[in-house]
Amino acid sequence: MPSGEDDLIARYFKPLATDPGALGLVDDAAVLAASRDDLVLTTDAIVEGVHYLPGDPPRAIARKALRVNLSDLAAKGATPAGFLLTLALRSADERFLAPFAQALGEDAALFDCPLLGGDTVSTPGPMMISITAIGRVPPGRMVRRNTLCAGDRILVTGTIGDSALGLDLLQGANADISDEHRAFLIDRYRVPQPRLALAQAIRDHAGAAMDVSDGLAGDLAKMCAASGVTAILDAAAVPLSAAAQAMISGEPAKLARVLGGGDDYELLCGVAAQQLDPFLAAAQRIGVSVSVIGSAEAGTGAPRWRDAEHRDIALSGLSYSHF
Amino acid sequence: MPSGEDDLIARYFKPLATDPGALGLVDDAAVLAASRDDLVLTTDAIVEGVHYLPGDPPRAIARKALRVNLSDLAAKGATPAGFLLTLALRSADERFLAPFAQALGEDAALFDCPLLGGDTVSTPGPMMISITAIGRVPPGRMVRRNTLCAGDRILVTGTIGDSALGLDLLQGANADISDEHRAFLIDRYRVPQPRLALAQAIRDHAGAAMDVSDGLAGDLAKMCAASGVTAILDAAAVPLSAAAQAMISGEPAKLARVLGGGDDYELLCGVAAQQLDPFLAAAQRIGVSVSVIGSAEAGTGAPRWRDAEHRDIALSGLSYSHF
């Protein structure tokens, strides 16, 4: 006596449940066999109209939902073990579900993070996708946010600000940039690139780490506050893509948007001086760019940002908050 | 530079994060230390207007959100380890959040299931609470849904149908019952009683188990289908509360509502003949009522329900489905 909900799960999501612990999604729970690893648990939800736009492609929505969670696992130095999916839908629309599930399955395979279970519910409101991702680290080795030390160099992966600028473009901002740059920035907004390839290097060499999801400046301030230190940052050292450079070149005021905008899903970490070279070497081997943007210092004030002439820059509204 | 979201988390939810693995909710992830147990993972979401009514008390909403997940852990024979909370809110309304968080904390303490982490997001739509609960079982001992065997006696805990009748009352159904019975049924709808006290007895004696969330008849049909067996059930043996008996006494047609309605959050299990007495004895020691309602049989048809005169009863629309 299968219900519509069970049909939907069997049709779209059972093919993703490749792990034996998922029990083919016929049970109400999944099982993760005992192991010698600590488990890292993280959960992030994305809401239509808040974290993505109603017109975003279903494939991109699926990828964003999973990848924002994988980004957290990467920042903790964890290897993915699997994920649970809660999907709140207005209707069981095949035109949405088929490409959504397909892309989710492709990403689950790409990042070796199988679907373990979930819940599918109806909602009269905006669609919402909540994912809980589970990762593994050797005992005691999860990298924390609140362990940045005075003297640590502060680094970020990839490039910063692309996603916020991409969102601006989707929302109608004018920019005298090429179609290629425009497409690049929009793609950066829609499809985060979780830096899982760097997870082991983070675990081996970083003293503290988090992913940049609410804006670099604000997230760095949170890391400093949680760690009881402050920091001095070199705004000119923040890595920018060619597309971002093109978009802000005419408007230096947009630097605040780059440093304060959200959805970067790059990694921010503190690395002790003696670990810097091995970390940079590991990142180079892996092929992920990392940039030193400043240093942590003793003290408790807000991090200070300086321009190329070492003058303080005032930044306001630096972090995205839902409330 | 704390944001409104961080303030909200610190004020309302940090007090619930009593487990060291929650890291005081200052990190993006929680950590569960390696152990010799298998981990059982389950996730269930509740949506305003779908799983609860907009006028339901915040304390009841909190309890329902957690307890529907704890009910799944109980059915799997698992002991709670903790939970992750995703909260999608229209606004950070203290009148909602303060009692919601307080009741959630009380239940977390009552069931020894601490808050490990979560995500708080804004939504323009109905409120949604998605919880992922994690439990522990000795290796290989999670009780499954698809392992019901021909010959197993089929049992349920507590009483069935109260919640569906309570929802009917909240939605304006007429019933010539006492105020006390009315309050009992409404409370059963609003605040499930997860049968965690019975988890170890389920693990020790049940061959298959699930919780009854989408209606007893439909959930039993799912268990039979997943297990490749059928069943014969005695409708008169289904345990009814005095309040439910009072409400359906004048309208026998409401039996279908009792067997088909959802939100019971009782446990449904299959117990082999030689395990029946020890299981009943364990339940009695614990003080949870359990009732034998039928037996599993070889075959693949839909379970057959019989009345007190052993005549077949036709039941339709037996399971709640979101789509």
Automatic annotation (TrEMBL), chains A, B:
Pfam family, one: AIRS
Domain of life: Bacteria
Residues the entry annotates as binding Mg(2+) 2: D44, D72
Pathway(s) annotated for this protein in UniProt: Cofactor biosynthesis; thiamine diphosphate biosynthesis; thiamine diphosphate from thiamine phosphate: step 1/1
Residues the entry annotates as binding Mg(2+) 5: D214
Chain positions recorded as Mg(2+) 4 binding sites: D28, T42, D72
GO MF, any single term: ATP binding
Catalytic activity: thiamine phosphate + ATP = thiamine diphosphate + ADP
GO BP: any one term: thiamine diphosphate biosynthetic process
Segments forming domain PurM-like N-terminal: 27-137
Keyword GTP-binding among record annotations: no
HAMAP family, per the entry: TMP_kinase
Name the UniProt record assigns to this protein: Thiamine-monophosphate kinase
